[in-house]
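User: Fold this; tokens only.

Assistant: Input:
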Amino acid sequence: MRKFSFIIGGIAIAALIISACQKKGLMDYAGPSSIYFQPIAGYPNPNSTPQMYFVVKRAGKSDTAMNFAASKMDAALNDTMWGNFGLFYSDDATACEFMMPFRITGDTSAVDRKFKLRVIDTATNTPAADFSIDPEKCIVKAGKTEALIPISFKRTQAMKSAYQYVTVELEAGFDFSVEYNQYLISGKNFKNTLRRTFGMLDQYPAPTWWRGNNSYGASMFGKFSKTKFLHMVDYFGIPEDGWSGLAVAQVSGYAQLFNCHLKRMITAGTPVMDKDDLTGEVTQMSAGTSASSVCDL
């Protein structure tokens, strides 16, 4: 009977130890130190707001650090982070860096530790000359459990028409394993923690109702361009972020006023000029085909 009680007690103690390890969280992982990308969605809790860090490269100026919250949450196997030169940086920005966030399992170290990172060519459409990752910077510093490592994108013409993507993957080697390779998001849904995709665009952001040549905004104001939009901002005195919440009737009303404004400028011999965001072609600015042509000139 005493032997049976001892066995039962041992089982109970083991269960408590396992439970305690589970409750303490990831950093008590008992295997070799692993390196991984911090998951975006639902980490460390379902309502968390992920952050990305950028450094802007400006011609003839000092670098400027910026903080950017992820604009999209990817439901795919690995997470994607998006950036946009047109939204965050002025026209003199020549390049920018995503600061890739890494974490490790296990204990800290008294010395710097290196890790391996490779580019997945089949999931990357950015030419090798237009981005860079310095392997010498792929280090977790002594005493640290996380690292921010830059991937630099050059500002290119291709970004004006489509996102340029780079997908990277962690590999075992140097001082870290990659055994912690997935993260439970919810239920049976797992996220890959070894891969991450970074996408960069260079388009000034249009209001939601003016995105695409078949949008309501295009029918009222014509093709979107940064030049046209900023002229509207100046003419109407409505800041950039004030245009996104306009109702359909408001869009129609402003389109009529804008159309008349452009006609008055033509009559005065000072037509307003527009510039195509993609080609750079300069033409006379015009409103959309659905904008009213009734004007008191």
